[in-house]
Sequence to fold (234 residues):
Amino acid sequence: MIDLYYWPTPNGHKITLFLEEAGMPYNIIPVNIAKGEQFTPHFLSLSPNNRMPAIVDHTPIERGAPISVFESGAILLYLAEKSEQFLPADLRGRVEVLQWLFWQMAGLGPMLGQNHHFTRYAPEKIPYAIDRYVRETGRLYGVLNGRLAGREFIAGAYSIADMAAYPWIVPHEAQGQNLDDFPHVKRWFEAIRSRPATIRAYERGAAVSDGTATMTEEARKILFGQTAQTAGKS
Ligand SMILES: N[C@@H](CCC(=O)N[C@@H](CS)C(=O)NCC(=O)O)C(=O)O
Fold:
């Protein structure tokens, strides 16, 4: 059994996408990041960066003590290796998937996260910041569109690279993007959206929170008021 410390955000959805596809049993432990639950001593002992998702695998392949993993890319890799699914075993296939997984982790996720911040959450609308991140989002969509031209999925068969990227494309309208401008992304997006495991993953998320009333003043302070003094308490 896997314990999944989770809140239904793009990074959280990556892991439910995997677990639903793989049919691995899991138990969701909600971490309400708008209420500061990412700062409990127990959660920080698993995820010292005070970010969800994190997992605890109580039955690791080697047996022995439970293994905890934080960072969604590391979790996807851990689960893919454990289940021997969604990551090719051969060197070339594996490299293809890993480079796109890291592209998502280092580029698509962080840049689109800044887009969300400046377009939705920043208390003042800063045109330079909005323009910078909406344009960078468009550039990254363009990279993904080029990659998907003539390919069903990002790297061979449906893989952890697709699972990492998909949840970040879900809010494309709020990110200032029109999928009609990216026809290969649009086709890929529709195909993943209609997978039974994707539907189940998003249903699990909706049962945890419907997302309404999340961004209260208190939540803003918790999420956007973090400093060196609030970090490193694990
Ligand atoms: N690189 C991390 C990012 C995780 C992340 O940013 N999680 C956000 C929600 S999407 C979070 O837990 N935020 C809590 C906070 O900012 O304190 C990953 O991919 O796991």
